[in-house]
Amino acid sequence: MLIDGVSRLTVPPERAARAVRRFADALDATGLDDILDCITPMDSSPASVERLGRELRRPLARALDLLVLGEAVAPDELPADLRRALDEVLEEPDGALLRTKPDGTWILTPLSLYRAFGFWYLAHSPHPASTAYFGDDSLALASRLDHRARSVLDLCAGPGIQSLRCAARGQRAVGVEINPAVAWMAQVNARVVGVEDLVEFRVGSLYAAVDETERFDLICANPPLLPIPVGFSYPFIGDGGPDGLTITRQVLEGARQHLTEHGLIQMLGMTLSDGFRPQCVPELEELADREKLQIGLIAVRHERAGQGSVWCDGVATTALAADGTPPGPELRIASDELAQGYLDLGASHVVYYFLTARPGEPEVRYHDLSQASRSIWTV
Known about the structure:
The protein has 2 domains: 2-111, no CATH class; 125-372, Vaccinia Virus protein VP39 (Rossmann fold, 3-Layer(aba) Sandwich), CATH 3.40.50. It is built from 12 helices and 14 strands. It has helices at residues 13-30, 32-36, 46-53, 58-67, 80-90, 136-142, 161-168, 180-193, 246-255, 281-291, 310-322, 329-344; strands spanning 2-3, 6-7, 99-100, 106-107, 111-116, 119-124, 151-155, 172-177, 199-203, 216-221, 259-273, 293-304, 349-359, 363-368. Helix 8 links the parallel strand 8 (172-177) and strand 9 (199-203). Helix 1 packs antiparallel against helix 5 (80-90), helix 3 (46-53) runs antiparallel to helix 4 and helix 11 crosses helix 12. It is globular and about 60 Å long. Mean pLDDT is 89; it is low at 1-8.
């Protein structure tokens, strides 16, 4: 189980999965599965769940607060069936996913039980320093993955949403995650979803966890993707290097050896731009020529990253929160430092993009759809 954010790796994933399935079965009995399935998958954010909760009767709303939003809830505020199921989980001898606070309330931390694509799965509750990350970019990539691939390699797998999505459609998947505790959580999730025979999670760094003879129809990755200038402190889980492409380059450069003849790479990310064109296009053209890849790059949003911008303030707030620093005068200092870092790199904006690549005649096709942007990852 997970206690205080540390994985009890000695607990078999199947045993932990039984406890989570009891959660899920109890939630299904309340009808919360059908209610959450009404949310657009691309908008299954905590904010959307919170808005939905305001429309529900109090016991169901409090169940969402406890299991999805990570809040402490008094047992008598919950639906009776769910309360009984959670009582059983509390009696687990090897440490429960749920704990009782001194005031008698229950809390599921640092975890949340999310729902998307018709199944429940565990990930860390929203927190700047979470290691089992789940966010809107996770959903954005999972919703686009090619359904025709028979074999899938999911790099930077995290708690497994891409692999789970593929396996739930009958595709065979291998997920690679560098953090053993997070890979353990992904194994738990595979058993909760019921796809453990179709997905395997390995601990390692990108292709180092893959045999040199293994080939896949699809390689996908949701890597650390935030452009973070050198010297600016930011949590490892989101730091994509100065231009956001540190891990993305490694994925692209190693892909040809592990792709089938007609294989496909699907990724997303953020990188630097002038508000119109990503700085990385010339580099991608060189990479395409070197690796013999056809690369498609679609910009869906350009976000201003100058002094006083919403972007710099947001990233700075997250960085300070990860260090335990409350917002205050330090926020303006950190935000301005970040904006100056981007200026030194010649960038005025950060661009959100989707990237595909496949073996073929080298080229880079760039499309800018940002003028039609409706939200962060959609147009």
